[in-house]
Write a structure and sequence with these properties.
The protein is mainly β. The protein is built from 1 helix and 8 strands; from the N terminus they run ββββαββββ. β5 and β6 form a beta hairpin.
Length: 129
């Protein structure tokens, strides 16, 4: 599935600051803490009969997995002109937390855009050593 825009591919490690009681220096030590992952937003134009974003989000509405899992691993690939992947990001246990459509304005001559915001539990790049 193609997208016109993907945003939110971001990971951040929280900083834990502390000062040991016997430390004679007047500053805090900094240690790595928990890792936080931003939600990822996918944007694309609306196509006739394509309700995949809405249907996936609808499965999570009451967080009930009726014979289907709403969480899935997702791969986002940046492709070159020949459609060969340059880099791949993998989102672990991803599920949609928001679906949104653009404004309907009869005066503008623009494509209606839809957005799917995905939350996840981990971001990795499989090709990275």
């Amino acid at each position: 599935m193609g997208f016109t825009e993907v945003s939110g591919l971001e990971a951040e490690t929280e900083v834990i600051e502390y000062r040991e009681g016997s430390n004679k220096l007047y500053h805090k030590n900094k240690q790595p803490g928990l890792t936080k992952y931003s939600n990822v937003t996918l944007k694309r134009g609306v196509f006739k009969g394509d309700f995949e974003f809405f249907q996936w989000w609808q499965k999570t509405f009451f967080f009930q997995e009726v014979n289907a899992k709403y969480r899935r691993d997702i791969s986002i690939k940046l492709l070159d002109e020949a459609h060969v992947p340059i880099i791949t990001w993998t989102l672990a246990n991803a599920w949609p937390c928001r679906v949104k459509w653009g404004s309907l304005n009869a005066i503008d001559n623009e494509v209606l855009m839809e957005e799917l915001e995905i939350t996840h539990e981990g971001l990795s790049i499989p090709e990275a050593p």
